[in-house]
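Lab notebook, bench 4. We co-purified these components, and the gel suggests they stay together. Before we commit to crystallization screens, I want a quick structural picture of the whole thing.
Request: model the full complex, all chains together.
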Amino acid sequence: MRILYLITVAIILLLGCQSTDNRPLPFLGQVEVIDGDTLKHTIPHWTFLNQDSTKITNTDLANKIYISDFFFTSCPSICPKVMKQMLRLHEEFEDEEVIQFVSFTIDPKRDDVDKLSLYSKNLGVTSDTWHFLTGDQDSLLDLADEYFVVAYKDEDAPGGFDHSGKIILTDKSGHVRSFCEGTDPESIPQFIDDVNILIKEYEKTDNP
Amino acid sequence: MIACEDNIYVQGGRLYQFHCESCHMTDGSGLEAIIPPIQTSDYLTNKLTELPCLIRHGIAEYKLDDSILLEMPANYDLTEYEINNIINYLQVKWETNHILSIDSTKQLLEDCPIPLYKFEK
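Here is the predicted assembly.
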């Protein structure tokens, strides 16, 4: 009798124990209700130049799940560490065509297309999988807000800018679905899980 | 059993953490071709005599129009003792074991080639 009871409990626990791959990903940000429609936070339209001098807009990313960060090449503080984690993620997802990487510079004055071209070459990546974007200073700093990344000019900060090292996950519709702290390597595995959940979400709807 | 410090250059280790780690990383692996790794660096072995000056003055690569392409910032706030300590900490950490005496470091720092650029805040 006792054994039957234990087996039942075990079965219930196993059934209740969902693998992390099944939990749904949230939509981050404030929702707006307009005319009775609930609108999730969506990244507004942007246009910038990448390291090949090609104009890139977020419409070009409509079929991609993209992973992004905000940085600048002369950053002596957190950027190298965040880039290291971005590289790690890049390696992790190198066989996933749906994943694109996007790094926005917040210092376009120093980070022109040539600089970004050199930087990305030295990092060992191409725009096929990783865009490095530059453009109008104010647009870039304002855009950081949309991705919930703090970034602003600060003369007293190392490099002249203060910004967070968040790495952001955005889906095909421009909704932010997850993030992690690029300065903390331990926050990466959970983020990798989230990316995989999102990939599977699309696979299910694209191939019902 | 009380564990011994596995690196006796403790101050060097802390200085590395404070001044070098954010770029060269905690494990000294650097960042691809942007930030060279330390663990396999020539500067710990056959280029060791260039290392004190490198730490003090940094190094820069320029574009044709004199604008900076890639750079390692200078460290003018480090004393000769601190530079010496960092170098020896690395020698022990990466087991290259070419310990520099403080006199050697001082001597080498006196004869640094003119810095490639001035550190600008």
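The longest strand of chain B covers residues 68-72. Worth comparing against the SEC data before the next meeting. Chain B touches chain A at residues 22-23, 25, 31-35, 63, 69-71, 73 (CB under 8 Å).
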